[in-house]
Every structure is written in structure tokens, then in C-alpha cells.
Amino acid sequence: VHSHVNSSLLKVFVYLKEVESTKRMMMMMGATTTTTTTTSKTPLFLVKKKRTDLKIVQLSRSRSRRKLPPPPKSVLKTNSPPPAEEEEKRSSITKAKNSKDAFKLETNEIALYDTTLRDGAQQVGMSLTLDDKLAVSKRLKEIGVRFIEGGYPGSNPKDAKYFEVEANNAREMSSQSNSGSSKNSSYTDAAEVSNKNKNKNVNNNTNTFISAFGMTRRKGVSVEQDAGLQAMLDCPAPVACIVAKAWDEQCEKVLEVTLEENLQLIEESVAYLIENGKDVIVDAEHFYDGYNANPEYALKCLKTAANAGAKAIALCDTNGGMMPWDVEAITRIVVESLGDTMIGVHMHNDGGLAVANSIAGVRAGATMVQGCFNGYGERTGNADLVVIAANLALKMGKKVVPDGELAKLTECARTIAKICRQDILARQPYVGPDAFAHKGGLHVAALKKMPMSYNHILPELVGNSARSVVSELSGRGNVLDAAYKTGREVSGDMAKKVLAQIKSLESKGFILEDAGASVDILFQRAASDYEAPFNVVEFTVHSGSTSFGVVAKEEDDDDGSSDSNSSSNGNGTNRNRAPSEGYKEGSFSSNQAIVKIDTFLTKNMETRLSVAEGNGPVDALAKALRSALRDDFPQLDGISLSDYKVDLLSQGGTTAAVTRVTIDFVDSATDLRWRTVGAHSSIIEASFRALVDGLEYGIERCADGCVVDFETN
Length: 713
Prior knowledge:
Shape: elongated
Structural class: alpha/beta
Number of strands: 22
């Protein structure tokens, strides 16, 4: 059923729903089957060319299903049936069908299929332990993601163990909740669990199902013999997602099978998993590229999977290069062609359009969206399921998670990022720390009058919050807002004074928008009644090293031995050795700091001098400063540096460039964290400025809640 228009015209094909009359197992055994042909009147369809030209294409629905010949017996490997005890074990695990259909959706509901634990884990620099995978899975179940693809049980022991642990945990939970029932929310029906937990403090959403990933059988191997399919049968997950080729060129060049053989791989693999109690999803790999190359064959792959009993088929933009309008047009054809089969989309972000393409697929009728939380994945990543969920729910009115869970989206995304040891992208839509941050003074002023004036949604809908930052671009409103958030009452004159200081500091290289403690210190010092707990009078740092010069290299005698009685020149270098460049043996470096401070804890000022050595000049300064302050402020013992970052501000690439230093602090007693910044042409002075501000901030907000009380005359 193929009408060639031309190479640039989008080809449209419509298939009539076929009458199922072929018994697959009889075909595999070479038995004779009956072929049924259905015909109907030929409909007319409008096809859009380049979005402006319309052409009427007449398509015939008349087609007959061809019987696939059985594979040669000499090619297929045979395998004896599994032992009875093995069959019994499988039956107890995989044939317990879900009384709640994982693929039965409510009106206007879209199923989210998360593949962070499998596809997302293929991201460079991301490696998940078993505990990581279980923690991510737990959080996804709590928020109510419909499907969680836990991994590839046939590829590594860790993934196989994940499914085992998940099954055991679910059985224990269900046993406690259902008085011994073996049902559970991730593997079987959870309705009863939910009813029994209504009055308990248990977050147990009941619409999550665990899926195992695999592939169709290998060529030349029977389904009973294929190790990957057997691993999926042994896996307790009720849903099996198998990848199948849908691009003719890939079949011939990558799989090295004929097009008919590829259809056999799909049909036999799907049928075998279903016969053994699995609900099957087929990921049609490279589908959109395959459709553009050979639409008839790409659709035939989908129909083969559907006729074999697949519950859902995901259309994959595996190379991530499709355009949204093409995705929408092709997906609509598939939805109309396959009738009742659930259609999903699986997009990659190589063209930066994974989210847009996923939305386009839903517009065309897809009811499942696959992706990864925070857009993790190979190359440029998979579609960001976080952004997709928010867009579908808030912009398209779709149901994607249980009621009330969307407001936990930000917390969930950041928790998963932490588990995966990935930094959350500050500018990530909806959930990033900067998603609703405002820097311009005009914006902040407008937001106070109209919260939606510069926000596309209310951030609280996804659990985020709006914030303003202070910088040289700020207005007085930004400063007042920053003061309000720290609990300070600031007058207009003080706000004006602090804003002038901010602009001056940023012109010298400071960046204060993320250094909240440095801004807070400016407010403190601007207050008329504030007296600093200490003041640095002067500091000196001495750094030395004996690591440079020449290396003493012994000259061997003729017999290979060295003269142990060779004389020395008095500085440790043997006169009988030949010099060479490098580091001296036994070399060391020294870093010593002297800090002189005035303290004002009492009405009588005290001057103190402290000396310390450290592992580097900044460490020596920190130790000397702490030593001078410790007697008056013992809470400093609980304050430590958690991060230290240096940025070189360009000045033509010279060594005279201004250096910006950012220091993160943490109070071990309260887990309070803060950040300060310093800038100077000297990296040591830039570091010391950030250090002084950080300790002063920590003294004011010390662990025991003390407030520095200055006695007056």
C-alpha cells in the first residue's frame, strides 16, 4: 500500500485494520494457514507538501497478509524444553497478570515511561550503583511515574539484582499491607494495597509498573535458545520492553538479516514473551528515519508487532534529528493505522528538540512518552521527562502523575540529580534554581505588582519558587527583596547605599548574585548600630619551597657502583654528580601566615597576633585567623570550607588579571551553608576577603543561635 509522490513529498499511507486469521505458532512449525484479504472503498486523503501545497493522493486499503515462510531448520538452533521446576518458577513470577491493566489509561491521561536507569545511565560521566538505582526507582514510584525501566537484565548482574531486590521489597510491602497477599504496586495490582494504606503515612502511588529492557531474538537462534529473551522471562518485572529494527537499511547492514527475517524476529519474540506471561512494549528503533527511507516497511514492522500482541509500540527518533512537524505528521499516520494499540514516542536530543518532538507526538495521538528525568542520556541526552510532564499537565491539560504530585516535581528532579551525582542544570525549565530567578530591576518591580508579569506559570505549581538576585543590573527593589528574605528591615536610604556598594564591587570583578552571605554582610555593615566582631589590621604570607633547582644524579663508576665517600659541597648536592633538570629529592614547601586582628567582643578592644603554617597560603591564613578568633568565638570550630573555586577574569591573558575566588562554607552543627566571594589581582588577597566575610557571617549565625552582643560605654 505505497504511493510514491516524489522524494520531497511526505508519503501518506493508511492501513485497514486486518482480520487476524494466522496462528503464529502454526506458521513457525510450517503448518498451513489461511490468508484473509479484506477490501474496502478507496478513501481520499489530503497530503500537505512543504506546508503550503496540497495534493490529493488516492490510497488503496486492499491488501492481503502474506504468510511468512518458516526459517530453514539448518539455521535455527533447537533447545529442549525447560525442566518442569523451571517452568513452575517462571509461572509463579511472570504469569501472574495484573488485575490493574498497566496500559489502561484514564481519559486525557498520558503514560510517562522513565528510562533513567537504563538509557539515562549511558550518559558519559554517569555511573549508578545498585543502591543508586533503587533510590531513583523509589523516588519515581513516589511521584507516580507510570513505567520505570529498571535496566537490561541480560546485560549485567547489577541490573538483574535490581529487579530481584525490587520484587522482594514489593512483596514485603504488599505482604504487610494485604495480610500475606503477594500483590505489589510495581509488579502486580496495587489497588488493595492502596485501600489498606489510606489511613497510614505511606506514600505508595499505585500506578507504577517496573519494566525490563531487552531485544528481539538474535538471528539464527530460536526464541527458546535466545539468552536475552530467557533473561527477560527470568526477570520478575511484568512488563518487557524489547527493541526492534524499523529501518530497512539497518536491518540489512547492522543486523545482517533480510527484511522478511527481521519481521520474523519481531513476531516470534513478541509472541514468545506474551505466551510466557509478559506485557510487551516494542521500541521501534530508528522508526522515523526508517519511515522516511521506506514507509511501507517501517509501518509493516509496527503492524507485525501489534498483530503479535504488543500492548504498546514506541516510535523512536534514535538519532535525535527529527523536526516537530514531521514527527507530528508521521505519528498521526501511525496512530490512525494501528487502531487500539497504544503508541508512544521516544526522542533523543541531538537536535535540541527532544521535548518539542515529544509534545508533537502527543498532539498527534501518542499516549505514552518515554524519556529520562533531567534529560540524562547518551550523547546530548534523552527527552527531559521533567519538562515534558510539566508541559503536558500545565499547558495541555493532560494527566501525567497522580493528583498533588506535580507540586513535588522540583524536589524530585533535584533529589534524583543528587542520587546520580549530577549537578542540576541551573537554567533547567520549571525545576532549575534559576528557572524563576530575576535579575533586572524592572522585572523585580513588576513582579511585586503582578506575579505572572515575567513568569509563564506560578512556580509553586511545580514546587519551585521565584527569586530575585542582586547585581550591578539590579534596582532598589532587588536589594529590598534580598533584605526581606534574610529577615532584615531595610530603609530606602540603606538599600540605595548597599546597591551602590554592589555596583562598585561588581565593577571590580565580584559576582554577588549567588554569594548571598557577602550581600548579607553588606547589609550588616550598613546598619548604623552594627559593630563588626573583629577587624583585620594586617596579614602577611610567606611561601617558600626547596623544590626547584637541579637534581643530584650520581655518576656510576666503571663497575656500576657509586662512590659512597664522595664529598659534598655543603648544601646537599654531591660534587661528583652530574646535574639535570627536575625536582630535588626530599624537597618540601612551606606556607606561613601572620594575621593581626582587633577583636571587639567586649568594650575593651584587644589586639592579637597569630601565626600558623598550612598546606598552601590560603590554608595557612585560615588557620591563623581561626587561631586568633577561637577564644572569643568557639563556634568557628564547627565551620569548615566545603568548596573553593577560582576564576580568572580576562585582562588580555596576562598574569595581572583580576582573580575571583568563591568559597562555600558549612556549619556541621546545623548544616547551614553559605557562600562568599572576593576579587583582587592577588589570588591570596581575593581568597582572604572571601574567607573573612565567610567567618564573620558564621559568627553572627553561629550554631547555638547566638547574636553578637556588643557592650557600649
